[in-house]
Amino acid sequence: MKVSYYPGCSLESTGKAYDRSARAVCGALGVEVQEVKEWVCCGSSAGLKTSRVKSTALAGMNLALLEKEEPSDVVAPCPFCFRRLASAQQEMREDPKLKAEVQEAIEAELGDRLEIHNLVDFLRVKIGLGPIAARIEKPLIGLKVVPYYGCFMVKPRQVTRCDDAENPVSMDEILATLGAEVLDWDFKTECCGAGLSLSKTEKVVELSGRIVREAIFRGADAIVVACQLCQANLDMRQRQAARQEGKSYALPIIYFTELMGLAFGLAPEALGLNHHLVDPLALLKNKGLIG
Amino acid sequence: MTRLNGAAAEKDFLARVVEESGQNLTACIQCGKCSGGCPIASAEVGGPRRLIARIQYGQKRQALEDPTWWYCVACGTCMTRCPVEINMYRVATALCEIAEREGVAPSEPDIHLFEELFVKSVERHGRANELRVVAAFNLRTRHPFKDLGSGLTLMRKGAISPGEMLKGSRTDERTTRLFARLQRKGTEDGR
Questions:
Q1: In B, which residues are within 8 Å of A55 by CB distance?
Q2: B48: cis peptide before it, omega within 30°?
Q3: What is the reported pLDDT for B144?
Q4: What does the pLDDT look like over B58-78, one tens digit per residue?
Q5: Over the stretch A89-103, which tens digit does the pLDDT of each residue have?
Q6: Above 70 in pLDDT, residue B5?
Q7: Residue A157 CA to its chain's centroid (Å)
Q8: Cross-sheet strand order for the sheet of A2-5
Q9: pLDDT in tens, A257-290
Q10: Considering only alpha carbons, which residue of chain A is nearest residue B162?
């Protein structure tokens, strides 16, 4: 199977480990990933806040580029990019005036044949648990994890089409298939503070801190994520949160694709597991999951 | 305390926000589920329920200066739980555009600065160069060494590289042209 791949800006920079592991896992599952040529930023949360027409036009520019590619399935690992592209598509479908305005601004006609997927649902639904199970070489026995979905992949449900935005299970099912022990918890879709990381750091320390605290309370060895912004916030801000409480946290924040790759027998470095602030390698060695 | 007198200007503001956001704020029953689940709601910031009340009452200045929509991270929790499915990040965009047009000073200058630098980066380069945006923000807010420790560790681990800062200096005519065209059109339409 061949899909168009929209990495987005973060995956070229702070989210390289996600990009690397996503491509590696897709490759291992026989999915041919074709990066869309000459893509531009989707506008992110800053674009979305400041101008409706600009952010829709940026998404529209990418949709036009994606339509030039042969596959109609599009995979966007970054949950914000995923939601922005899917949302722009939906908004233009419902509002022909907006679509006309965007088409004029980007000097291109837009069709409507693309299906935009986030990476978790793509692997869970389009590929399925069977092929994932069949690819496992080293099951993740003994690893206790809490899956953290964050916001943009699931909410608002009217945009993401998520079955259950309060209690999504797709990542739980993938992790359980890999052999990990998936713990129950209430913070699957609580916000980490997202784009306020820099401008309102204290808010992100508070929000990310309570997620890490809860995961530790549940006895998790690691939080598993599907978003590079969640990864960065939880990884980077947990130390400040711990300091405020007079404690010390060192909870690894790992991409679900890194764990898939590990279970598939791929090298930790090829997955970017050596790139995180809180080192997951010691934990994984300790559990006998890497040599 | 603002007295409401049902003036045309008050009704007009509500109608404008409803139209520009595409969200029917008149359907809001003030149940408060939105603020109950909102990650940024607090005594200081307020939250979506109070912001909608201000718009419903035509309290234009209070609404445009309300920190809630600056803080909004577009998480979508409020819309997911709202009984009448109001999408508040669409309301945030509408208020941001109206405030900009009417020259209302941002009540949260740091959030505004970050978003402005980010969008500028996209306009010039087609893609956001995250490290440059971070560096520019820290310099402009006079905290040049903010998060330096984490940054250096990430560099040592090969997660980010200083070379990325240089890579993003290539300009992208497509986005520059797109923004210029929309700017021009916005001015013509009186937006």
A1: 93
A2: no
A3: 87
A4: 999 999 999 999 999 999 999
A5: 999 999 999 999 999
A6: no
A7: 16
A8: A32-35, A2-5, A73-76, A115-118
A9: 999 999 999 999 999 999 999 999 999 999 999 9
A10: A13
Which pair of tokens denotes residue A184?
């129950």
Q: Is the pLDDT of residue B191 over 60?
A: no
The pair of structure tokens assigned to A162 is 């998520």
Report the distance separating Cα A217 and Cα A207, nearest Å: 16
Distance between CA atoms of B164 and A111, rounded to whole angstroms? 35
Helix (H, G, I), strand (E, B) or coil at A36: coil
Classify residue A74 as exposed, middle or buried by CB count within 10 Å of its CB (0-12, 13-18, 19+).
buried
Distance between CA atoms of residues B81 and B32, nearest Å:
10
Q: What is the DSSP letter of A265?
A: T
Residue of B nearest to A190 (CA): B39
For chain A, list the domains and their CATH numbers: 2-120 (1.20.1050.140), 138-286 (3.40.50.11810)
Which residues have CB under 8 Å from A203's CB, separation 6+?
A: A193, A196, B40, B71
Could B118 and A47 be called an inter-chain contact, meaning their C-beta atoms sit closer than 8 Å?
yes
Domain boundaries, chain B: 8-101, 109-188
| Contact with chain B for residue A200, Cβ under 8 A | yes
B104-156 pLDDT tens trace: 999 999 999 999 999 999 999 999 988 899 999 999 999 988 888 898 899 99
Residue of A nearest to B114 (CA): A199
Tokens of A34: 């074709």
The predicted pLDDT at position B3 comes to 59
Residues of B in contact with A269 (CB under 8 A): none
Task: Please provide residue A277's backbone torsions phi and psi, each rounded to the nearest 5 degrees.
Answer: -65, -55
Upper half-sphere CA count for residue B146 (Cβ side, 13 Å)? 19
* pLDDT score for B2: 60
Nearest to A89 by CA among A193, A195, A6, A197: A6
Complex ipTM, two decimals? 0.95
Torsion of Cα atoms, A176 then A74 then A190 then B136, to 10°: 130
Give yes or no for a contact between B72 and B87, defined as CB atoms under 8 angstroms apart.
Answer: no
Give the span between the Cα atoms of A88 and A212, in whole angstroms.
33
Q: Per residue in A218-231, pLDDT tens?
A: 999 999 999 999 99
DSSP secondary structure string, A168-213?
Answer: --HHHHHHHHTT-EEPP-S-TT----GGGTTTTHHHHHHHHHHHHH
Q: What angle do CA B173, B176, B177 make, to 5 degrees?
A: 80
Cut 0.90: pTM above it: yes
Report the pLDDT averaged over residues A14-40: 97
The β-bridge partners of A223 are A146, A253
Smallest Cα–Cα separation from A77: which of A18, A20, A9? A18
